[in-house]
Amino acid sequence: MKKVAILVVVVLALGFAANSIWTDSAQAAKLKVGDPAPLFTAQTQDGKTFDLKSRKGSWTVLYFYPKADTPGCTKEACSFRDDIQKIRDEGAEVYGISADTVKDQKAFHGKYKLNFTLLADPKVEVVSRYGTKMPIVKMSKRWTFIVGPDLTIRDIERDVDPLLDAKRVAKEIGELKKGG
Predict the structure, then answer these.
(1) Which of 68, 73, 87, 160 is catalytic?
(2) Which of 12, 69, 85, 135 matches a 20 to 30 Å C-alpha distance to 20?
(3) Is 90 exceeded by the pLDDT of residue 140?
């Protein structure tokens, strides 16, 4: 009888996990170019409140990454750091978002002398709204969104190359501004 009860619990848990995976995938499929960007507030690496609504009238890059201070995430953050002026020359600002805590974001920001804002999402609320949450684990996929001045999604990159994303973003914003 004990084995049957354990089996029932395992089956229910697997069903819940499968449902979570389906829900996450369905959310990711929902957001597309032209949709309003999901509005949110989050804490910066300095503990200040960031509100996406405050970006109305400006180009905004939201790049989601799995975990602060890991190899791929460090490469991507340093690439944005090194190419930030190209993006700012296009009138945009960059915000990196992960499920890390404010403390972890602050340490990552300082260690690599990042010159743009990191946002902490330890409850994975923003990550979930944008459909970037990995199945089962409390981490984001590596996706980048370009949000236009009207707060609509103008570009989504789901196959991000951490070393080339910043250059791609600067070029893409230039093309979008030209109407391309």
Answers:
(1) 73
(2) 69
(3) yes
